[in-house]
């Protein structure tokens, strides 16, 4: 059940009304049934949604955004959820996973390249936290990342699961152990890695309404590795 406040700002009320009209027109029940059967989310409809400027709500104005306005962005999720996760899911992956993390922890290069694309809804992100042998104890992740070539290259090796959206996202925000000999919790790093070349497997078809959202990420060997320059990949690397 959606909870509303009687004193919501006018722009939030207008936003809600706009999104309700959008859903009525672009995501009626017959279309949602087609998407459910196809086990896919509608990229064409999401592109139209992005034209309303909603993905820009978590992006600072200097990068082409309208925010951050977290109240408004949360209202978007509430309204989109009226038709399930078909649009709300990709919106969260783009505006929150992407916009929130890159704006807060991204390098100047990452912000300049990614935030304008996020504001336009043209890039998607997934989270890579849990692993085959690690569930909720994220401090025990085994995926490793280390620097090579004098700090100019980040090398990542490991495997992840429960990576919702791994089959269609452009990047994965991956939690790694960057200092195996370091103290627990202080040896963790977030890296932003491209999903190109990785294999995502669908594990739960349609469960929990996450239509078309793959949840397991690996290479054929059950692991993945990659080499990227720090300017492109690191969100929050700890130098020790």
UniProtKB/TrEMBL annotation:
UniProt xrefs under SUPFAM superfamilies: Acyl-CoA dehydrogenase NM domain-like (SSF56645)
Domain Acyl-CoA oxidase/dehydrogenase middle: 126-202
GO MF annotation list: acyl-CoA dehydrogenase activity; flavin adenine dinucleotide binding
Stretches assigned to the Acyl-CoA dehydrogenase/oxidase N-terminal domain: 11-122
Membrane-crossing segments per the record: none
Keywords, alphabetical: Plasmid
Record flagged with keyword Protein biosynthesis: no
Keyword rRNA-binding: no
Name the record gives this protein: Acyl-CoA dehydrogenase
């Amino acid at each position: 059940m959606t909870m509303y406040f009687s004193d919501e700002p006018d722009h939030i009320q207008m936003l809600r009304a706009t999104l309700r009209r959008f859903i009525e027109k672009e995501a009626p029940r017959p279309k949602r049934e087609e998407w459910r059967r196809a086990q896919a989310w509608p990229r064409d409809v999401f592109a139209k949604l992005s034209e309303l400027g909603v993905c820009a709500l978590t992006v600072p104005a200097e990068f082409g955004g309208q925010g951050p306005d977290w109240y408004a962005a949360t209202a978007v999720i509430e309204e989109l959820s009226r038709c399930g996760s078909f649009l709300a899911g990709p919106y969260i992956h783009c505006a929150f996973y992407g916009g929130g993390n890159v704006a807060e922890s991204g390098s100047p290069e990452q912000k300049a390249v990614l935030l304008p694309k996020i504001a336009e809804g043209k890039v998607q992100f997934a989270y890579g936290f849990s692993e085959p042998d690690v569930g909720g104890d994220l401090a025990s992740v085994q995926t490793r990342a280390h620097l090579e070539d004098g700090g100019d290259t980040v090398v990542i090796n490991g495997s992840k699961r429960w990576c919702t959206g791994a089959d269609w996202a452009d990047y994965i925000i991956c939690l790694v152990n960057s200092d195996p000999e370091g103290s627990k919790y202080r040896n963790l790093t977030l890296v932003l890695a491209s999903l190109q070349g990785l294999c995502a497997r669908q594990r739960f078809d349609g469960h929990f309404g996450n239509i078309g959202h793959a949840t397991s990420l690996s290479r054929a060997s059950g692991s993945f590795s990659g080499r990227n320059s720090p300017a492109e990949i690191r969100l929050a690397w700890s130098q020790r």
